[in-house]
Specification:
This protein has 172 residues and is mostly helical. The chain starts with a helix and ends with a helix. This is NINL protein.
Length: 172
């Protein structure tokens, strides 16, 4: 817009200079006074218009510059915020990756421990089965011993009775 306005201003100034030369040429050619005054008035009006146009263009240029500066500052702030956010996200990502790596290591350790525990459980189950079989055998042996013990007690009781019967008979 500024370039267009400057071009318009240059064009208006060139037209103005041309009109001024034409006016001088007409004066030199004995232009009537009334026409000369009209041309001078027209020239003054054009100069006023040119001055107003220059002022307007200057104001527009200043306003555009201020707006560009504000826009540039806003873009810089937005860019800084985006960079900070990206850095924060990158930091968060690195932290998350570290946590995930640590958790993966923990899970690997836990899986290894679980495998060891499964083997230990299988060993304990086998040992438990052997103990159960040994217990069962011991219980059977104990039962057999109880039965033998009871039989021996019965035999001992029978012997006591027999001895009790034999002893008075042998004494007499």
């Amino acid at each position: 817009q500024l370039l267009e306005a400057k071009a318009s201003l240059s064009l208006a100034q060139a037209q103005h200079a041309l009109q001024l030369q034409q006016a001088k040429a007409q004066i030199n050619n004995m232009v009537p006074k009334k026409q000369f005054e009209q041309l001078q008035n027209t020239l003054r009006e054009e100069q006023c218009k040119t001055q107003q146009l220059q002022e307007s263009l200057q104001q527009q240029a200043e306003q555009t510059c201020r707006q560009l500066v504000r826009t540039q500052e806003e873009h810089e702030h937005l860019l800084e915020a985006a960079v900070e956010q990206a850095e924060g996200l990158e930091h968060s990502l690195r932290n998350a990756e570290a946590v995930l790596a640590e958790r993966a290591a923990q899970l690997t350790d836990a899986q290894a421990q679980l495998s060891r525990n499964k083997l230990l459980i299988e060993e304990l189950r086998g040992e438990n089965r052997r103990f159960a079989m040994a217990l069962q055998a011991a219980e059977l042996k104990q039962k057999s011993m109880k039965e033998k013990n009871q039989l021996l007690e019965e035999q001992a009781s029978a012997l006591k009775q027999l001895i009790g019967k034999i002893t008075p008979a042998s004494l007499s």
